[in-house]
């Protein structure tokens, strides 16, 4: 569903560039609930605006794979996990507050 | 219509004592809230409930930890002999550590806790769990924003747990005004248990109280509990009914003359005996006599020592000729020596309770009882003793307690607090007289038997306690050298009385002799006079006869006359 970009081998000098380069985002949902759908739509919009071409979204439905909830310590639904770049960030909620999402993704500086 | 009372179905915890006070366990298929301050044993209680459920009652369980990792938990309970890894391997227990770090989480809109539900549901389904522990779910409040959502989600969670039909324990940290910080008691209202960890006089005591148990009878008191190498044990004894069976069997105190003071046969079996006295009056020696006597009868004795070590007691008792070593070797006697300051009162009680349950003694000695009394906790000591006495009586165990009373005149006052619990009370006291202190004893009370009311002096000799005869002087009972002096005095008096009697006897003899002499003299005089008189009489008689003779002779000589006369007469 998303443009998937294979990362080129990172160069030391380009470190900052590469970190910002490869975004792996994982959205945890539990079935097709309105909140989940809203979250996915919001996420996609934000990514297209700010990370166009360099992101990857993985949607995990815990109803299908409940055992996966443990690995990323998921409690709240929906939860967006920024796997890459490190450090891991977690953003909960339907992502309707764009500013907070951007802050949560370190795309905006924390005030 | 005959109404049969349907008991609420319960899920036994398997925890020593808890099932007794809850009347069978926690409410089955419902959540129970366990709250208390940090370090009071919430996690352990919950874990023991789960592990015992898995092992003893074949009810698998899920432990969801919010504060400790799985590794930490496994290590922590390994010391209690619970092998969580093994249980997890056999799918008896599922452990899940929920990690929430506020700083890593950004809230961006509406959310719910479906993730938690799914995790929990998955764990329950994969182990077919009947029991669930959420330890401490309140930490989600610090980890996740928006308490309003969390509250409604928690409400949903507890409802969901009920629907699942699992027996759940939810732990919560104690709040300032409320039972839990987040007021979980509002949501979990079937059963609420409060744990408490109090420190009084630098000794800590853990207590458990059932605040609420909907639809069931339960004990309402605070019950002390103990955490040791075999898990939690709760002391269920409290204000029991006075229904213990009583024995009329009598057992010797080990001191024959003390037995004699109590109808000649000693204490009642199963009674409680208090030996109180000031320092150094020989309380432990009396206890040792009783121990010795009990062991001789082949009975088991559990000796709780709070001032001396086992070795010290045995050495000291050897000095008065009581050798306890053989009883120790034959396992009839066990001396458990602990410092009173080692733990709190309740802990001591719980430990004693446990030791008694394990050792199953016939006789229990507590020496001394009131080393527990620190500062103003006398009421607590009384409560503790009451529980202990009750427990001992239920088990028909004879209890002998020693109690150190303060010097001065308040001999009885200090012990009044516990006196009502005691069946036989022997008071040992120093009697100061004539510049020395001696040991005296009396039986202050002894229920259900005739007993001596005398104050008796006793000695600690190299063959044990010896009671002496009573010498009562003008200022009370005489003891020590005063008694010896009195004994000497009495001896002297006796000698004097003897001498006096002898003297009188002599005098009597003398008087008799005198009298007899007098009689003899008088008799002699009489004899003399008699002789005189007889002589006179004889002389008189002789003279008379001589006179007569003379007259006759005269007449003869005057024969003629007479013949004349005769003649004359004849002639006439």
Helices, strands, pairings?
The complex is a heterodimer of chains A (111) and B (572).
Chain A: H1 15-21, E1 23-29, H2 34-50, E2 55-61, H3 68-71, E3 79-84, E4 89-92, H4 98-104
Parallel strand pairs in A: 1-2
Antiparallel strand pairs in A: 1-3, 3-4
Chain B: E1 10-11, H1 18-22, E2 26-27, E3 31-36, H2 42-56, E4 61-65, H3 70-78, H4 84-89, E5 93-97, E6 105-107, H5 114-127, E7 131-135, H6 139-143, H7 147-164, E8 167-173, E9 191-200, E10 203-213, E11 222-228, E12 231-234, E13 250-251, H8 256-261, E14 267-268, E15 272-277, H9 283-296, E16 301-305, H10 310-318, H11 325-329, E17 333-337, H12 345-359, E18 363-367, H13 378-394, E19 398-404, H14 413-419, E20 424-433, E21 436-446, E22 456-461, E23 464-467, E24 472-473, E25 476-477, H15 480-557, H16 559-571
Parallel strand pairs in B: 3-8, 3-9, 4-5, 4-7, 7-8, 15-19, 15-20, 16-17, 16-18, 18-19
Antiparallel strand pairs in B: 1-2, 9-10, 10-11, 11-12, 13-14, 20-21, 21-22, 22-23, 24-25
Mean of residue pLDDT values of chain A: 80
Mean pLDDT of chain B: 82
Shape assignment of chain A: globular
Ends distance of chain B: 167 Å
CATH class of chain A: Alpha Beta
Q: Walk across the major sheet of chain A and give the strand order.
A: 2-1-3-4
Any idea what the CATH architecture of the largest domain in chain B is? 3-Layer(aba) Sandwich
* Number of extended strands of chain A: 4
- CATH fold description of chain A: Glutaredoxin
The end-to-end distance of chain A, rounded to whole angstroms, is 33 Å
Roughly how many Å is the radius of gyration of chain A? 14 Å
Q: Count all strands of chain B and give the number.
A: 25
User: Helix count of chain B, per DSSP?
Assistant: 16
Going across the major beta sheet of chain B, what is the strand order?
5-4-7-8-3-9-10-11-12
């Amino acid at each position: 569903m998303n443009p998937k970009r294979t990362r080129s081998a990172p160069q030391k000098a380009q470190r900052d560039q590469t970190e910002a380069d490869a975004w792996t985002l994982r959205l945890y949902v539990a079935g097709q609930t309105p909140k989940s759908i809203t979250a996915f739509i919001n996420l996609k919009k934000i990514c297209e605006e700010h990370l166009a071409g360099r992101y990857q979204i993985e949607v995990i439905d815990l109803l299908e794979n409940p055992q996966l909830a443990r690995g990323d310590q998921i409690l709240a639904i929906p939860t967006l996990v920024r796997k890459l770049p490190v450090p891991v960030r977690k953003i909960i909620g339907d992502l309707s507050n764009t500013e907070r999402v951007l802050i949560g993704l370190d795309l905006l500086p924390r005030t | 219509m005959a109404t049969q009372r349907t008991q609420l179905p319960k899920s036994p915890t398997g925890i020593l004592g808890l099932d007794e006070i809850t009347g069978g366990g926690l409410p089955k298929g419902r959540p129970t809230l366990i709250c208390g301050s940090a370090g009071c044993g919430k996690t352990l209680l919950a874990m023991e409930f789960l592990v015992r459920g898995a092992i003893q009652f074949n009810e698998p369980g899920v432990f969801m930890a919010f504060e400790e990792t799985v590794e930490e938990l496994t290590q922590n309970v390994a010391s209690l002999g619970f092998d969580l890894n093994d249980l997890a391997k056999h799918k008896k227990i599922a452990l899940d550590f929920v990690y929430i770090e506020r700083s890593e989480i950004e809230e961006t809109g509406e959310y719910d806790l479906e993730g938690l539900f799914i995790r929990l549901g998955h764990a329950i389904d994969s182990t077919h769990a009947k029991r669930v522990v959420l330890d401490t779910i309140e930490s989600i409040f610090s980890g996740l924003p928006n308490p309003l959502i969390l509250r409604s989600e928690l409400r949903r969670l507890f409802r969901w747990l009920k629907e699942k039909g699992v027996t759940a324990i939810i732990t919560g940290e104690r709040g300032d005004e409320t039972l839990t910080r987040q007021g979980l008691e509002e949501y979990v209202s079937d059963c609420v248990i409060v744990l408490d960890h109090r420190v009084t006089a630098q000794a800590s005591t853990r207590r458990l109280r059932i605040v609420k148990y909907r639809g069931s009878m339960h004990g309402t008191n605070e019950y002390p509990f103990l955490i040791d190498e075999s898990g939690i044990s709760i002391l269920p004894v409290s204000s029991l009914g006075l229904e213990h069976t009583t024995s009329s069997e009598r057992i010797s105190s080990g001191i024959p003359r003390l037995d004699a003071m109590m109808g000649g046969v000693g204490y009642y079996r199963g009674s409680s005996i208090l030996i109180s006295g000031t320092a150094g009056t020989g309380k432990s020696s009396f206890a040792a006599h009783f121990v010795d006597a009990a062991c001789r009868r082949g009975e088991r004795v559990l000796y709780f020592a709070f001032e001396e070590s086992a070795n010290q007691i045995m050495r000291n008792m050897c000095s008065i000729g009581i050798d306890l070593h053989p009883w120790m070797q034959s396992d009839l006697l066990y001396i458990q020596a602990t410092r009173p300051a080692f733990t709190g009162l309740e802990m001591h009680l719980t430990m004693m309770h446990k030791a008694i349950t394990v050792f199953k003694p016939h006789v229990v000695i507590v020496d001394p009882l009131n080393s527990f009394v620190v500062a103003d906790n006398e009421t607590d000591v009384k409560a503790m003793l009451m529980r202990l006495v009750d427990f001992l009586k239920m088990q028909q165990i004879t209890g002998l307690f020693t109690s150190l009373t303060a010097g001065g005149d308040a001999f009885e006052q200090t012990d009044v607090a516990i006196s009502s619990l005691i069946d036989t009370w022997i008071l040992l006291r120093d009697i100061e007289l004539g510049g020395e202190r001696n040991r005296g004893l009396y039986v202050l009370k002894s229920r259900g038997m005739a007993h001596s009311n005398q104050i008796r002096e006793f000695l600690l000799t190299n063959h044990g306690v010896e009671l002496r005869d009573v010498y009562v002087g003008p200022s009370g009972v005489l003891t020590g050298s005063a008694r010896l002096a009195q004994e000497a005095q009495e001896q002297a008096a006796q000698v004097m009385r003897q001498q006096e009697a002898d003297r009188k006897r002599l005098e009597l003899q003398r008087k008799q002799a005198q009298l007899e002499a007098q009689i003899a003299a008088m008799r002699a005089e009489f004899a003399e006079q008699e002789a005189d008189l007889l002589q006179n009489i004889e002389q008189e008689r002789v003279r008379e006869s001589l006179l007569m003779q003379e007259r006759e002779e005269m007449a003869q000589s005057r024969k003629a006359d007479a013949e004349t006369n005769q003649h004359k007469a004849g002639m006439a």
